Known about the structure:
By secondary structure, this protein is of the alpha/beta class. It is 33% helix and 24% strand. The model is unreliable at 1-31 and 370-374 (pLDDT under 50).
Amino acid sequence: MTSSKNFFSRIALGALVVITALxxxxxxxxxxxxxxxxxxxxxRVAVLPLDNLSGGVAPLKLIRQEFISRLQAEGVVVLPDxxxxxxMARRRLRYVGGISRxxxxxxxxxxxxxxxxxxxxxxxxxxxxxxxxxxxxxxSTGNDPRIIRMASSAMAGDDTPGILGxxxxxxxxxxxxxxxxxxxxxxxxxxxxxQVGPSLTPASVFxxxxxxQGKKYSVxxxxxxxxxSRRYAxxxxxxxxxxxxxxxxxxxxxxxxxxxxxxxxxxxIMEDGVSLADAELVFGVMQAELLLxxxxxxxxxxxxxxxxxKVDFTALMLNRNNRRAGWAVDAHAKGDDRMYLFDFGRLSxxxxxxxAMTRGAVKTLISxxxxxxx
Length: 374
């Protein structure tokens, strides 16, 4: 088993048909995950206010209302805002990026909703070309909150310009509607077993502990240590990994809100990334069998149409059985790495690029091929 020295040092801390197919997924992600619980017409949910991870100003209330309207069009029953506001005031609930065990139980007992929808806005820009990236997940209520479904949608106005620019979108409202429609479609999808969107293989892979093919693993995903200049990049990349793990029925991913609450309760502050003591706590308190964490070295979106987004990260998985890293990856890419004629294959947002990279990374995690890639 071989790998480059640089990799280990960082881990320690075509045919027209093919081109056209690439264009269809070039600038967007539409990935969904599902558990054994159904999401259908009549499901009663509470939609939390948007968690703004974009690092800028955005019409959060408008986006949320458009999202709710689209859910209602699918027959989902949404808890009225008056009841949600009263519940959040009683519970002094301010954090909207996840849900704790206590709040999940209270949602079920006091409002009768069967799920809570947590939505994160990761990118929003109305200047040309407009861009938007959203991630949403349904989390079951009750004493044992679980992620039922998870989906993402990232779009840019110049995703598929086509010949003579006939595919360009310059209206932010039009782009927003399409992105929300794609998000809800993914969230309501009954079957997400197939791969959705492009997949990029990491530059380096270290894998020396195969997963038991007949076992379902409990996984805790911690926010990645953000070494980039992009605010919230650590939280965003963690969400990408969570989505890809949720899509695979071999993993049971602990709700991020539960992870956050446990870390706060035990006063764990990871200023420079996760320590061995932190890992011991996660394994012991959360009863997780696997722990995923890592670093974000670069997470850069672009302004205008001249440059391509860049994403660079390292990730590793610790196993509770031996407290050792059995899998690790080093991934770095640009949005135009797979660009073809007329910009086909180009990934226009860092969100879409990160989705393709984490999708490829998780594929190596579940692979039975244990040969490290330099």
